[in-house]
Amino acid sequence: MTPHIANGELRALEITVRLNGRLILDALNLPPLGAGQMVALLGPNGSGKSTLLKSLAGLVPASFGALSLGASDLAPLRASARAGHIRYLPQSLPGDIHLTVTESLLVALRAGRALNTQHAFPIVKTALAELGISDLANRYLDELSGGQKQLVGLAQALSHEPQVLLLDEPLASLDLNHQHHVMQLLGRLTQERRLLTLIVLHDLNSVLQYCGQALLMRDGALLASGAPAKVITAESLAAMFGVRARIETCSLGRPYVLVDGLLPI
């Protein structure tokens, strides 16, 4: 496959989202996010993380002061047009689709593209192999576990060779082995394809181990951004999650988070 090459930074400024009369994001500004970065999006439930990803993908009504990728202005584009640059993977895929894994990837890959099966099939085969799920190729989606479906969804997103990959809790249904497999794979592909990967995670130690940057959110606002080891602190964890935590160093010299308890309300 010949991946897209992102020629510039993603700029997203003054992002405002109202849903059902409720203000979710209020003129939120992201720092410039460049190609080749894996960026973690952190925050408690209800802080606006999923809404932020959907707004960037054009899947919820949003207003922007600016939304661009390099020289491309994405703000006027509908979700179908933005999908040529940005791919969003939700927390879970629909569970009632009776297609094989291969069929589902072929359908997703050919949607909106003039691509015949002869050209699409090698792309699908490569995407499945990269994720280590070639053995699922002839299985039906509605027979898979939640974790297997999540891996198939990731294969669908990667097969489109996006410039920006938006992942909403992709590790949620995965066992420990597959969590690390996926994070290592995402790290490698982000570098090799010069992707920008923005990923919602709750495992802070995975963020510290695999991500180059972290964005910390609470109540629809950005609390901090920067290198994970710089912004994941006892103070920021107290502000985000209301927990009493420590950042220690393991025998390999890597930082890790220990939570000692909850802060008094």
TrEMBL record:
Top-rank taxon, per record: Bacteria
Domain ABC transporter: 10-244
Leader peptide range in chain numbering: none
InterPro entries named among the record's database cross-references: AAA+_ATPase, ABC_transporter-like_ATP-bd, ABC_transporter-like_CS, P-loop_NTPase
Gene3D superfamilies per UniProt: P-loop containing nucleotide triphosphate hydrolases
Keyword set includes ATP-binding: yes
Coiled coil location: none
Keywords: ATP-binding, Cell membrane, Membrane, Nucleotide-binding, Translocase, Transport
GO MF assignments: ATP binding; ATP hydrolysis activity
Pfam families in the record: ABC_tran
Keyword Electron transport: no
Function: Part of the ABC transporter complex HmuTUV involved in hemin import. Responsible for energy coupling to the transport system.
Stated name of the protein: Iron complex transport system ATP-binding protein
